[in-house]
Write a structure and sequence with these properties.
alpha+beta; 8-stranded mixed sheet; about 20% strand
Length: about 220
């Protein structure tokens, strides 16, 4: 025969189990699930931000560079699948990347599966992107537009629109045959898998770069 204490223990266990089930169901089948999921995401997102900033701060300190005079730039080497982050022309970090499926040659138009080559800059930062995070580059640039017009890929009017966007410092149009909305994002660097010409990194690496560069950061993409 069970003792009263045992009965109380069993009752407490069953009540606790029922409570956990009720709370779980409440989260799953009500709008609360969105709140909980969002808060969890914020926790991990903030950790990624602080981790990334603190890591680069330590590297900057080793080179006597402060945030006040920190001037980042990025060089991407397609052949060696490397992205290098510089601070005031000093190399501070290198990351493995994946590029678009056709690995040789400069991007000429939207469906050629090539990654651009040339001088660009970060023109937009997208935190909640389908590939984790995106640092968009200003492709097509005025140089790309001029080349595209010469090769009869875009019209004079489209070249002018792209040139005006670059002169104004805004995101270039992405509705021409040159393509667009290309950048540096996450979801893995294990292979050359992107189709639009973007550069891919492991999520932890794009977080590190994302939190340590701003719009306007120069990006040189080399063959």
């Amino acid at each position: 025969m069970k003792k009263p204490v045992t009965y109380l223990g069993d009752a407490f266990y069953y009540l606790l189990t029922i409570l956990v089930i009720v709370v779980f169901l409440w989260i799953v089948i009500t709008p609360a699930k969105y709140f909980v999921a969002n808060e969890i995401y914020k926790i991990f997102q903030n950790k990624g931000e602080m981790r990334s900033i603190n890591k680069i701060n330590k590297i900057l300190a080793n080179h006597n560079i402060t945030r006040a005079n920190y001037k980042p730039s990025i060089i991407i080497r397609k052949k060696t699948r490397e992205l290098t982050l510089y601070a005031n022309a000093i190399k501070i970090a290198t990351y493995t990347i994946g590029i678009s499926r056709v690995t040789v040659g400069r991007k000429q138009q939207k469906d050629d599966l090539k990654t651009p080559e040339g001088n660009y800059h970060i023109c937009n930062k997208v935190l909640n992107h389908k590939y984790h995070m995106l640092l968009q580059i200003n492709y097509p640039s005025q140089e790309d537009a001029s080349r595209g017009n010469i090769n009869h890929i875009i019209s004079n009017e489209e070249e002018i629109k792209i040139a005006q966007a670059e002169a104004s410092g805004v995101i270039p149009p992405d509705d021409t045959e040159l393509g667009g909305n290309i950048g540096i994002h996450g979801f893995g660097s294990e292979s050359n898998w992107t189709k639009d010409g973007s550069i891919s990194l492991d999520n932890v690496d794009i977080e590190e770069i994302f939190w340590n560069v701003d719009v306007g950061c120069p990006v040189l993409i080399m063959p």
